[in-house]
Amino acid sequence: MDKILSMLADPNMQWIFLGCTLLGLSSGVIGCFSYLRKQSLMGDTLAHAALPGICIAFMLTGVKSIGLFLIGAGIAGLAATLGIGYITRNSKLKQDAAMGIVLSGFFGLGIVLLTFIQHGNYGNQSGLDKFMFGQAASMIASDVVAMTIVCGLLISVCALLFKQFKIISFDPGFARGIGYPVAFLEQLLMFLIVVAVVAGIQAVGVVLVAALLITPAVSARYWTDRLGLMVILSGLIGAASGAAGTWISASVSNLPTGPVTVLAATMLFGISVLFGPKRGLVAKRLMRRKAKRRFNRDTELHAQGSVKKEAAL
Amino acid sequence: MSEFWILLTGALVASCCGILGVFLVLRKMAMIGDAISHSVMPGIVIAFLLSGSRDSLLMMFAALVFGLLTTFLIQMFQNSGIQSDASIGVVFTALFAIGVVLVSLYARQVHLDQDAILYGEIAYVHWNIWELGGMNMGPKAVWLLGFTLLVIVAVITIFYKQFKLCAFDPALAAAIGIPAAAFHYLLMGLVSMATVSSFESVGAILVVGLLIIPASTAYLLTDRLGVMIMLSVAAGVASTFIGYYAAALLDASIAGCMVCAAGVLFAAALLFSPTQGIVVKKLRLRRLAS
Amino acid sequence: MNVTTTAAAQHTNTVAPLAIRGLSVAYQKKPVLRNVSFEVKEGELIGVIGPNGAGKSTLMKAALGLIPSIGGEVLVYGKSYKQQRKLIGYVPQRESVDWDFPTNALDVVLMGRYGHLGWFRRPGAKEKAIAVECLSKVGMADYADRQISQLSGGQQQRVFLARALAQDAKLYFMDEPFAGVDAATEKAIITLLQELKLQGKTVIVVHHDLATVQDYFDSVLLLNVELQAYGPTAQTFTQEHLQRTYGGRLAFLDRNLQSPPPSGKGE
Question: Is this structure's pTM higher than 0.95?
Answer without folding.
Answer: no
